């Protein structure tokens, strides 16, 4: 996937994304990092085709994403968004089956066997027939990931997958994502709230600020207090924690 | 004004005659009605059996109701010496049941078509044609289905009550006296 | 099929069989079960005429109409994300019924004319309801729907020009009505079963469906088309029959859960049963007269609806 001079604005308003050009390396985990309001979600929506660039183009296998049909996009790209609520209750297995619709016609009857692997990968076998309303936040998030990987996509986009989860579920979820990445060779694009999580898990980092791609590279290139402080507009220190490694900390106001 | 029977009509006419100083005209009208009632009684007298009558009121929109003894037409049937197959304690019209109509076997059917007569007549004809129940009734077999239309007939009594009663009386008992039976 | 689903299927099918037998027996001329049997085996032509020309077409018509209304209700609730969104509440059927009346002033009472006008009325109402932002606000949707419904039934009374409102009923329904109307409708019911997974798909947001390669719009249009097709068929044949579309799917949800692949077929059976019960009561309690089925359903459905609203803040599906 390539981004060629992608810009975006709603109607004729000010641009939210300015002239972003970059390549997504196949098979890598990429994290888009930046302060709130930098345009992370907008950028990811441009990359999934949910939004169309006002200028420039997102290319997928050499073709502009905007020219693919809904179905063709769903074949390549799966999304776990922040808004995952259901209007009415469904069984876990039925939610996961809906992911398979990306590969079938609308009238297809998908049998349980077909989605069993995706339930297994996310550790949901024993929940298959439970209603979604009875699951915890972390379990629900796993179902949405299972539904996304059931699309068998080339690219998996995760927008803040760990928000609203307590720390134990966050770790568990990240472990699942890493496992998936290893097993399926999927390209994963994430927006993560927790910068340390992003740095630890990713092969590549895109730093964006005010709609601009400030820099790209591997995480270890970014352990730099000055540039991080500048991007996040707050005082940042990098500390070393035994058995963990480098850890980015935001200092309280005025402690600089 | 309650005009659901001939008696009530006479009452109203008398009252209005008083009110508007037209007692003479009122008396004349009532005399006419009384005469018609008397003729109808004469006609019905000596009949071995009372004719069974079904009164239908067609409603725009493909349905109909049955007029009971409390409706104006039902009252005319009583005065003409007929037997209304749908009697009621207090209702003027009831929603009839097909099976009940079939079971009642009316000899005469009176179809009131006062509002939008063309449309309602067409509806009646359609219903009588398509629903096999009607063909089983003596009234339909013997071609004794009559359409009641304005100005002589209406859902409530009017000044043509005498004519209306005379017509119904003749439909119910086409042969005068008892000797023709 | 889960055990629970199988149980309720069995119960409802049993109820249906029993009710059909009772409906064959009762009427102006009550028959015993053996008399019914005798008539059908050709030993009693008079009773056979009553059974085959009056009772049976009426039973079949109410069964199929009930099934259609319940399914239309279930699909409409799925499409609007609202448990109260029944075609009769939303005004879909009243507008159709009013147009039929207007049309009958200009055209002779042709059946297919009626069907066309019921369809047009339904489509116009749905187009109006799905336009703008009404869809997003569940209370607004219901209030506007009810208003449309009341307005048009008022118009209808006005245009009938009578204090007596034309109350349509199953009385006088014949085989030719039943067959011409309902064979076509059975296709609609079959389509509803086939498309019932789509009602489940609409539990996801439009955006989520898009990312799975599914057009939410297409699905919604198909389902609402089916809703109009089913409900207008009943309106054209027997007039507005309220509440079946609310009562039945909600009871079925309570019994077997939220999966439309079960809700649709089970609603079909239960709707058929409920309307047959209501109509059978209507044609027997005040003989020789009839109580319109709409009256009975309003008496039962009104309190049910109040209870539904009172029991839980039900109407927005969450």
Question: Mind explaining what this structure looks like?
Answer:
Chain A is of the alpha/beta class and 256 residues long. Chain A has a domain at 2-86 and 151-222: P-loop containing nucleotide triphosphate hydrolases (Rossmann fold), CATH 3.40.50.300. Chain A is 32% helix and 25% strand. Chain A has helices at residues 40-48, 70-76, 92-100, 112-121, 137-149, 167-184, 195-201, 225-232; strands spanning 2-8, 17-23, 29-33, 55-60, 63-64, 77-80, 155-159, 187-191, 204-209, 212-217, 236-241, 245-250. Chain A has a six-stranded mixed beta sheet, sandwiched between helices. A four-stranded antiparallel beta sheet of chain A has the order 2-1-4-5, covered by helices on one side. A two-stranded antiparallel ribbon of chain A has the order 11-12. In chain A, strand 4 and strand 5 form a beta hairpin. Chain A is globular, with a radius of gyration of 19 Å. Chain B is of the alpha/beta class and 181 residues long. Chain B has one domain: Nitrogenase molybdenum iron protein domain (Rossmann fold, 3-Layer(aba) Sandwich), CATH 3.40.50.1980. In chain B, 47% of the residues lie in helices and 14% in strands. In chain B, helix 1 packs antiparallel against helix 2 and helix 2 runs parallel beside helix 8. Chain B is globular. Chain C has helices at 3-25, 33-40, 45-80, 87-90, 92-106, 111-130, 138-160, 175-194, 196-201, 206-211, 216-238, 244-256, 260-284, 293-311. The radius of gyration of chain C is 20 Å and the shape is globular. Chain C is built from 14 helices and no strands. With 318 residues, chain C is mainly α. In chain C, helix 3 packs antiparallel against helix 11 (216-238) and helix 5 (92-106) packs across helix 6. Chain C has one domain (57-160, 170-311): ABC transporter involved in vitamin B12 uptake, BtuC. The longest helix of chain C has 36 residues, at 45-80. The interface between B and C is large, with 36 and 39 residues.
Task: Give a nutshell description of this structure.
With about 260 residues, chain A is an alpha/beta fold.
